Amino acid sequence: MRAIVVDRWMEPAELQVREVSEPELVPGGLDVEVRAAGCNFFDILMVQGRYQLKPPFPFTPGAEIAGVVRRVGAGVSGFAEGDRVLASPGLGGFAERCVVGAGSAHPLPQAMSFEEGAALPIIYPTSFAGLVDRGRLARDETLLVHAAAGGVGIAAVQIGKALGASVIATAGGAEKCEIALREGADHAIDYRDEDFVSRVMELTDGRGADVIYDSVGGDITDQSLKCIAWNGRLVIIGFASGTIPSIKANRILLKNIEVTGLHWGAHAQKAPERIPEVFGALFDLYAAGHIRPVIFERYPLEKLPDALHALGSRRTWGKVVITPS
Ligand SMILES: NC(=O)c1ccc[n+]([C@@H]2O[C@H](COP(=O)([O-])OP(=O)(O)OC[C@H]3O[C@@H](n4cnc5c(N)ncnc54)[C@H](OP(=O)(O)O)[C@@H]3O)[C@@H](O)[C@H]2O)c1
Questions:
Q1: Domains of the chain and CATH, by start
Q2: For ligand 1, is residue 109 a contact (CB within 6 Å)?
Q3: Looking at residues 37-59, what average pLDDT do you find?
């Protein structure tokens, strides 16, 4: 089969497709023919050797997939050959076949395409658990989503609207603001051109945002504490800006706010009962038409370097997807 193989730390531009043997089916595993695989910013860091997880060589990156089950490992129940599934294997997704633990797989809803399925397993549970489990977002509250046209950002906008919140989006540039509005945001602020703090205060009649969903970090986090409401919750999701902010503790005290964070992978490991609950809730939202993964572009396997280049250069919105077979 064809797969991307990393046998030394390299730049994404150097990634190549190789002919390799099919992955070994292990007990508890599913051998999935990969129809689509989602790209993530950490794929870039992982192949460069700059990510916290450094797999032994050789390895195939690719953390989330959707495809068709071709073989079912010993001890697996609930899946059969031919089933359409989505899964988060962590590694191995940028290949024609991938063996995933059955515990990380979910039946792909009938109406969901493989590409949508490959775009869902990381950003949607992250945004759902971030807003619900950590942010306790309530109906009629105001949600501020930063980088609202990015992967987790779009998911947060859609989920926030579905939960009945009023959503204010920030994004870099007019085109990304348009995307955020199209995906359901009530207001969009181009935070490259406009002071988002004063605009949020204006839009909330001086109250500020009840929940702030922050996947950017840096100055954006610091500024956010100036437009958060009394009893507000700042949910830290990531640091796309590349800068981990320091938070002034007096701001936490003065406005009675909570600063919280969500790491979906760790959350799912520590509270595994939330995995079926969160995916079940997401599939219900999808069926009701409230959420829909947005695909920026699809690339064949050999174009993974171009896909990661697009992702790394801040040009994309929603998800970039690879279609290996
Ligand atoms: N906590 C978790 O479990 C979890 C799960 C998934 C992802 N994450 C993290 O969340 C962050 C966003 O992930 P994503 O999948 O949404 O990524 P993405 O699709 O690449 O979107 C990131 C967005 O951040 C904004 N941004 C601001 N400063 C940037 C900079 N210096 N370089 C690049 N982008 C910048 C960009 O939007 P504008 O151009 O509009 O500013 C970009 O579209 C990442 O740090 C990722 O590691 C965390």
A1: 2-120+293-323 (3.90.180.10), 123-265 (3.90.180.10)
A2: no
A3: 95
